[in-house]
Structure formats: C-alpha cells, structure tokens
Amino acid sequence: MPLKSSYSDKLKQTYQNLLALLSDRLSLLATSELPCLEEQLANVAQELAQAGIPESVWVSLVDGCYATLTPATSINYIKPRQVTIIGGHGRMGRLFREQLSAVGHNVSVLEQEDWDYADQLLSQAELVLVSVPIEQTVDVIKRAAKYLSPTTALCDITSIKTQPTQAMLEHHSGSVMGLHPMFGPNIKSFLGQKVVVCPGRNDDSFEWLLDFIKSQGGELIVCTPEEHDQMMVIIQATQHFCRFSLGVFLAQAKIDIDRSLTMSTPSYRQEIDILKRLFSQNPHLCVDIMLATEERCQAISSLANTYSRLARLVASKDRAALIQEFEGTKSCFPRFEAIPEKTTSNALLSI
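RE: above sequence
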C-alpha cells in the first residue's frame, strides 16, 4: 500500500505540474502574435528523442493549444457565399458542407437524383465544388459545366488533379482550381491538415475559400496538377497498396490483433491504427485510389516486383545481398538526427 500511495502522489503532482505548464504556454501564446503551427512544430525532433517523447504527443499538444486560441484570434466577419457541393452527402462532401455552413456560408447539395434541379442549384452558385468518386469526376465536371455561369468558380477535391483540372479548364470558361485535401473525412476541423492547391484560372476567385482553410489552421501547398499526380503515386497509391497488402496478410494468417497489441512496440501500434482507419473506409475509395491512373497501377506493379526480389533474398538467406540493398538505399533518405548513445539500442529494439 505505501508504494501505491507514493506512486499515486507522484502521478498527481506530475498532473499538477503539466497543468501549470500548459496554462503558462496558453498565456504566453495568447499575449503575443500566435506563431504558426509550422514554427511551433519545427526543430524539436532531437529534444523529443532525448526526452523519450513520441513526436505525435507533441503534435497533439501543439494542435490542441492552437485550436484553443484560434477561435478568439481568427473570427472575422465572413461574407456569406452561395456554394453548391456536387456529392455533398458523401463523407468528404459532408465535411466541407459542415465546415462552410458553420461559418455562415449558404451551402446546397446536388446528388445523383437532383440533376433535374441542376440549373437552379448550379447557375446561381458562386462556388461549385465537385466531391464525387474518382472515376466519376471528369464526367460530372462535363455535365455540371453546362449549367454554370461564367462568374461561377469551379473546383474539385478528388485525389487526382491533371485530368479533372484539364476538364474544368476545357468545359468551363470561369474560374477553375483543383484541391486535394490530404486527410480523410473523419477530422473535426482543418486544424493541422494539409490541402494541395493546383491553380487553374483566375485564382483570386478562390481567395476567400483558401483564406478560410488557413484561418482554421490548415496548411496550403501549391503545385501543378502534374507534380501533384506524380507525388500521389508514391504518397497515396503505393502506400495504400502496402497497407492493403499487410492487412490482407494479417487476416489470412488469422493474427489475433488485440492480443498482438498487448506486446507491441509503439511503431507496430501506430501501423495497426493506420490499418484500422484504412479498413474502416469505403472499399471503393481505397481501390479507386490504387487504380485511379495507369501510372499508379504501374508503380504498384513495380513495387510488387521489388517485394518479390527482396523476398527471394530472404528465402535464400542472402545476408550480404540484403545488407548491400540496405546500404544502397539509405543515401536516398535525409539523415535522421542521431539519438543519444544511451538510448540507441532501446530505440532500435522498438522499431
């Protein structure tokens, strides 16, 4: 009992210390110009490693403080806009509808059964946002463009950008922009989230929308549609395939996931969390991301060939060849800040 009581007292004191430090942090941030999230997250990797604190914990703390303070510092008068979201009852469309409606914009929804009212829903809109499955996006853009006024701004939020942007530029004479939210529909706000922006035509027409995303703590990354699609082959398609394959493997092997988590490393728990999120999604979305373009299919096929080649080296127990592969690859990655010597062995064991 004395040991338990002593532990409880220390834990309570730690809580009190944490609360005092968080209070100080919020006070300091509130009394000066609020630093952007990037500044608050930068250059802490080595300190976190030395303290044994996962970076995700620090990110959550910074995000939470930012969310607490931004409502008081970023609420301004917002001119209500007329917005129509094609596919607004889908999960991502619903997210944008809720976020835009919450700050006073007038948001309408056009779904498959609503095309008889397309002229009413689209012709008067200041912004039309296309949020439909990848394989339907170009056809929907072509269909919607017939009803748009030249003063209507048109954008899409699908995960490929070259073909939709080309279709919008070709079929609509007004303002055009491609957006790709780099997150799923389960988030509560844009805080700490990235949105890729692919300019098309008359970017100024979208300034209010981009300013809104930034005011909510979102980060905008500007690039061409072509660069975006090249990056997404790696960032999205091959990553989805890796995790899709791992999930299928674990299911086929009949692994008791809950039991495995009782003896897991932090990185394994993180990977399982990612798999849970992946397999909680609509399967059509996951498959569409992998099959969206021929480049994605080819990259996944090439990745599978690499898996097979390395697996043959493992099967033959070719240690030298595997080490050679490792050494030849590591120069492609930015140098990781070394963890202090006393913690290195434990860090390696936890990977």
